[in-house]
Give the backbone structure.
Amino acid sequence: MQTKIRSIYNKTTDETCLEAVHSSGLTVRIVKKPGKSIKTAMLATKYGSINREFEYNGQFITIPNGTAHFLEHKLFEGRNGNAFDFYAKTGAKANAYTSNDKTAYYFTCTDKFEENLEILLSFISNPYLTDENVEKEKGIIGQEIKMYEDEPSWQGYFGLVGCLYGTHPVKYDIAGTVQDIAPITVDTLMSCYNTFYHPSNMVLAVVGDIDDKAVLKLCDKYFKPGCTLKINQKIDLEPRGVIKEYTEKTMPVSRPVFYIGIKDNDTQLSGTELAKKETEIEMLLEMLFGTSTPFYKELYDKGIINSEFESDYEMSDTFAFCLLAGESDKPLEVLERVKKEIENFLSNGVSEQRFIQVRNTLYGDIISSCDNVSKIASMLISSKFSERKPFDHAQILAQITAEDITNRAKQLFSPLDIAVSVIKGE
Amino acid sequence: MQYSTFITASGIVRCDIFSNNFKTDCITVNLFMPLDIETASSIALLSAVLKRGNEKFGEMDKIGAFLEKNYGASLSVSTSKAGELQSLSFTIRFLSDRFAIEKEPVAQNLVSLLYSCIFEPITEKGGFKASFVEQEKQNLNDKIASIINDKRVYSLEKCKQAMFEHERYGVYEYGDINMIDKITPQGLYRFYQKLINSAALFISYAGFERDTSGLLKPLCDKFEVQKRPLPKTTVINEVSGIKEVTEEMNVAQSKLNLGFRLGKAAQDDLFATKMFNVIFGSSPTSKLFMNVREKLSLCYYCSSICDTLKNVMFVYSGVETENVGKAQDEILKQLEHMKNGEFTDEEFDNARAYLIDSYVQSADSLSTLLFMQTAAYLAGHKLTDIQQIEEIKKVTKQRVTAVAREVALDTVYLLKGVGGDKNAN
C-alpha cells in the first residue's frame, strides 16, 4: 500500500518536514538535509517510567518500577548477537535512553543508512527475550543503578521529586532499585512490549541526506498493516501542594548540592497550548534567574552560588515542575532569595526591553538547534507525542506577549508549591 | 566544506573552516602554555576572572544582556589540558548574520566582545579587580574540591596523580589548592600579560563562508609579534614496577582505574594507536565492552581512553567491590589477546568503520570540527579529516599488534566501596 506523504514547511527555520502515517499506524517524520554527511534515525515509543499501570489481556496490571528502562536494555539484543555487533560492521553510533515518558532508540551514521535503519527496525520489532538473558541483564543494570546511587546530582534530583510528588509515578527512579527489578521476567517485559510498542504508539524520525521512499519501504517490511491500539492506562494524578518542603542526604561531596523545585499544577493542557506554556515558563525562568539577572549577579558576587547554577523546566503531559540547581554552602538562603525574586516579579511584572531580550535568546536557540540532526530528530518526536506540527516553536514564541508571561507567573507561583533537596558532605 | 590552515603575517596559526550547512558560526582563540603546578591555578583563575567583565561591556549581567540581545549567543572562557600543555580558550558561538531579524551585524558584535574579553579586562591598582580575584579564588577552591562529587572523574584523576607523581602530566588542570592562596590581583595580572605575549596561539573560525581576515584582523593584530613555540610533552615509555593504590570510601560501587604506558611503537604510529584503542576498549563492540560487560556482566561501563600526546592509556570501570579482582584479570586478559594479535578480521574492520564514521560525523558539529583541527595542530600534523581517514585505511593488523605488544601496565588505582549495601534503605 502506498503511504501518503505530506510536506510541512516552516518559514522561520527554513526547514521542511515530510510526514506520513504508515499503514501500521506508525508516524514517520523525515527532514531532508541535502549535502549533509551525517544521517540519523530515532524510533521512539510514548512509554517511559511513569507508565506503570495499564490494561493487558482484559485486566489492569501494575508492573515493577524500572521495567521500561529494563526493556530498553533488552531490545538491542537479538538471536544472532546484539544490535551493537551489527552497527559495528557499518560504523554507525547507536544508543538508547529511557525517560519519564518515552523510550528512544537511535543511531547516527555517515554511510549505509538504509542498512542501519533496517538494523534498528528489525531489532525493535523482534524482541528476543529469554529467561537467561533477562537474568544476565539484572547484573548490568544493577551496576548501573549502583553507579547512580553514588551520583550526588541523581540523588539530589530524585530527593526533590520525592518532595514534590506523592502519588504521581514520576517520583520513582527511572531505573528502579535493585529490589524493584528483581522480579522482572520475560512475561513482564512482553506485556509492556505488546502494549506500548504498538506502531500507533510510536514515531520514527529520520534526518539527513536520505531517500524518503526507501524509509517507507523499510517500514512496510517491519511493520504490518493494522489498526490503532487504544491503550487503557492509569497514571495517578497529582494533587496540589508539596509532600515535604525539605529533604537532605549525606554523601561524599565537597560542597552542598541543592535542587529547588517549584511544582506546576497546571497539567491539563495539551498540544500547542502545552508547548506555549512550556515556552512561557522557559522565558520566565530566564527572566528571573538567568545569568544576566540581578538575582544571579548578587548571589554570584556574594559567593552564595557559582557558575554551576542552572534553571530548567521539566515537563510531560501529566506532570511539570521548575528546577533550580547548583552548589552552595547556604542552600536555604538561595531558597529565600528565590522566593523574594518571585514576589518581586509578581508585583512588578516584566519590562518590554527585558522581554525582547529573552525572546531573542530563545529565537536564536530555536534556529541554532536546526544545525544538529540529533536535536531535530528529538524535536520531531516530542512534538508528535504532544500532537504538534514539527518546527512550530518559532511560531509559538512569536505569539507570546509580555502579558502572557505575567499571567503565567501568577498561575505558576500562587500558591507557591516549592521544595528543596540538599546533598550534604560527610 | 572547505579547510584552510595558514600562518598570519604576525605569526599566528589560523584555521578557517567554511561550510554552508550551519545556521551558526563559531570562533575560538586558544592560548597554550606548559602544564605546570606553579601556573595551572593561575590559568584556571584567569579563565574565570576574564569572564567576569571588561571595560567596554561591563560586568556579567551586562555581558549576559548583550549576549541575549544577540540571539542567545554564547561566550565561554575555559581551560583544559592536552598532554603536558594547558590551554586557555575563548569561544564565541552565534547565530549566522543571515538569520538576524533586524539584520544586526551579529558576528561583528560578538567579535568585539571577544576582543574586549581578551584584551580589556577590568583593572585597578595595577592588577585585576580585587573583588573578582578573591571571589574566583574561592570558586576555584570549591571547583577543585568538588571533583570528589563525581567518583568516576575523581578516581581517574587520582590514578593519574599516582602514576605521574614525578611528571608534569600529573598536574590537575585546575591546579592545586595550595597554590591558589598565594595569587594576588597584581601577580595574576603580570602573569596574564606574559601569557598574552608569549603563549602559542591557534585561532580558528568555523561557519558560513565569509571574509574572516577582515572580521578577525583587529583581534589578530592586537597580539604582539613574537616567537610562540608550542610547548613539548615529555613521553616516558619505560615502566619500573606496577604501582598499586587503594583508597576506601563510603560508596555503593567501587571504581577500578588502570594506567598504561603505550610504548615506542604507539608513539611512532598515531593511527595504529587509534585503531588499537577502538578494538581494545573505546567502542561498544570493543573487547572490554563485549567481555567485561556483556559476557561476564561485571559492570555497566568499562572503557579505555588514550592521550596520544602523552602516549598513555587509561581503563576505567565501575564494579562491585567483590568483583574487582575478576574485572582486572579480564581486562588484562583482553590486553594479552591484543598483544598476541588475537582479534578477528571482523573486529579489525569494525574498528576501522567506527573510526572513519567518527571522522565523517565530526563534520556535523562546529565545535567538534574546531576541536579536531586543534588536536591536529597539537599533534603536529596538518592532515584534514579526509587525509586522516586515508591514514586510518592504511593501518594493518600487524601495526596494531606491534602497538599492543609494547603497552605496559603502570598503575592500578582502586576506589574501594565500603559501608555496606545502600540498597537496603
